[in-house]
Amino acid sequence: MTPTPGWLQEKLFERRIVFVTGRLDDALAGQAAAQIMTLDAAGDEPIDVVLSSGDGTLEAAFVLIDVIDAARATVRVHCQGQVGGPAIGVAAAADHRSASPHTTFRLSAPATQLSGTPDQIAAQSEQHRHTLWRFQARLAKATGRPAEDVADDMRRARHLDAREALDYGLIDAIRS
Fold it and tell me: DSSP string of 75-142?
């Protein structure tokens, strides 16, 4: 008997596991947010998010950050593969953060696409800077580091292995 295409996702959902893998864009954030909200409404048992995303948009990250903040259930994020850019903020929002031993982290400011008239581009640029500062402040709070240090690490695109991420304060534990 061959399982249906959604069979595995259904089984994981029943176990309160949500996967966030690939580029963190609006579609992925919307799907994961809907799953987290549904599981949160269904009960108080912890929700496990498996995160493997090397890049994405700040706006998509804030969708998930806001949903995790609003959840009544404990949200635990387990990082795998590469976690970078805005996805690091998703991990930082969790009640408990862990990583597999070979996970790598990349603190970096996400690129943005600006278009329009010079005045529109200036306004978009200012909005992006404001959103990035909120993001950096959020990471600073989660890690216990000064926001200026986090901003500097993001400008330099600092890479961390799992042990360094633990020491940095991005995660609480390394687990297999």
Answer: EEEEE-SEEETTHHHHHHHSSEEEE-TT-EEEE-PPP----SSHHHHHHHHHHHHHHHHHHHHHHHHH
Sign of CA dihedral 167, 81, 86, 111: positive
| Predicted local confidence at residue 33, as pLDDT | 98
Q: Residue 2 has what pLDDT?
A: 65
90-130 pLDDT, tens digit per residue, is 999 999 999 999 999 999 987 777 788 888 888 888 888 89
Which domain range does residue 86 map to?
7-174
Phi, psi of 163 (to 5 degrees): -65, -45
User: Is residue 49 within 8 Å of 92, Cβ to Cβ?
Assistant: no
Model pTM above 0.70: yes
Residue 75 inside a domain? The answer is: yes
Residue 161 DSSP SS3: strand
Is the residue at 64 inside a domain? Answer: yes
Q: How many separate domains does the chain show?
A: 1
In a domain, residue 108? The reply is yes
- Residue 1 pLDDT exceeds 80: no
Between CA 18 and CA 37 the distance in angstroms is 11
Domain membership flag for residue 2? no
Q: Tell me 27's DSSP state.
A: H
* pLDDT per position as a tens digit, 52-88: 999 999 999 999 999 999 999 999 999 999 999 999 9
